[in-house]
Structure formats: structure tokens, C-alpha cells
Amino acid sequence: MTTLTVARVLATLVAVVTTFGALLADFVIPATAAQHMRNDRWPPHAKFHDAQYIVMSILLGVIALALLVTPWDSEQFAVFTAGAILATPWLGLLGALLFPGTAIHDPEFHNRPVAGLHPQVFLALILLAVLLIAALLTALS
After folding, report:
1. Out of 11, 21, 46, 119, which could bridge 42 as a Cys pair, Cβ 3.0 to 4.6 Å?
2. Distances 67 to 4, 7, 89 between C-alpha atoms, Å
3. Alpha carbon distance, N-terminus to C-terminus of the chain
4. What 3-state DSSP class applies to 68?
5. Tens digit of pLDDT for each residue in 99-127?
6. At 2, is the pLDDT very low, low, confident or very high (cuts 50, 70, 90)?
7. 29: which DSSP letter?
8. Nearest-CA neighbor of 119 among 104, 133, 131?
9. Measured at the alpha carbon of residue 9, what is the angle toward residues 126 and 63, in degrees to the nearest 5?
10. Is the pLDDT of residue 141 over 90?
11. Residues of the chain with pLDDT > 70: what percent?
């Protein structure tokens, strides 16, 4: 397997998580959906913005998947562009923590930390690291 193929596989894995992750976690899986779209204490406008994030993640994941499965003259273009697209929602999640009055979870919920981090932050860092590895493999090929 060439390094470019490994890079595409890594980016494709992140694309699949990005496409389905927010939808499953925030809307479908009962335990986590209760903290988001199925949280009766959330006002409609908060749910609107979560739904916006879900739809945006699906769209960005699908666009990246299309780039990754399409043959290109430049494999580097496909991997770098898909990687930049896929990094967007995960960097957005981390960047949202910098705004005043935001929190990674509502006070009534406790999410068991993973490696000392909130699970969403841990996942974002892992997926960004995988994208960085894919980009490095692509740059070195």
C-alpha cells in the first residue's frame, strides 16, 4: 500500500466519522441526544444551531468523501483539500470553547473524561491528529 493510499484511507475514516458523528451523537443515540437535540431544556434557537452543526458536518463529510474517492491528477490535492474540509468542524468545536459563556456540556450532565478530556475534545484531537498524519504522508510521498 503506498503512502498516498494510506493517507486516503486515514482521511476517509475521518470523513465517515465527520459525516455521521454529530447526527448520531446529537440526535440518534439516546444517552447523548438527551444532552443535545432531545434535551427539553434547550431553547429552540439552541437546537437550531445544533441542527445547523449536524447538517454542516454531514455536508463537509460528504464533500470530503467525494474528493477522496474521485481520481485526480494530483493525489496531494485530494488529500490536502479533503483534510482541510474535514478539519473545519473539529477545529470549530475546539474554537467554540474560546467564546465567552460557552461550555463543552451543560452542568446537569457529566461525561466521563477520556485521558482527562471531555470525550468530544478527545475525539476532535484524535481526528485532527489522524488528518495531520495523512497530510504528512502525502507531503512526504
Report:
1. 46
2. 14, 13, 17
3. 12
4. helix
5. 999 999 888 888 899 999 999 999 999 99
6. low
7. S
8. 104
9. 85
10. no
11. 97
What are 50-56's contacts with CB under 8 Å, separation 24+? 50/26, 53/22, 53/26, 53/89, 53/92, 54/22, 54/23, 54/26, 54/27, 56/89
Amino acid, res. 108: E
Q: Which DSSP string do the residues of 79-133 spell out, in sequence order?
A: HHHHHHHHHHHHHHHHHHTTSTT--SS-TT--PPPBTTB-HHHHHHHHHHHHHHH
**34 pLDDT more than 60:** yes
Check: CB of residue 138 under 8 Å from CB of residue 75: yes
Output the CA torsion 17→123→87→35 (10° steps): 80
- CB-count burial class (<10 Å; 0-12, 13-18, 19+) for 2: exposed
Q: How far apart are CA 32 and CA 84, in angstroms?
A: 27
Q: Residue 115: what are its φ and ψ, rounded to 5°? A: 55, 35
Q: Quote the Cα angle for 13-65-58, to 5°.
A: 90
Question: Quick check: 12 and 65 in contact, CB under 8 A?
Answer: yes
Given the C-alpha cell 493510499, which residue does it identify?
5
- Rounded to whole angstroms, how far apart are CA atoms 131 and 97? 21
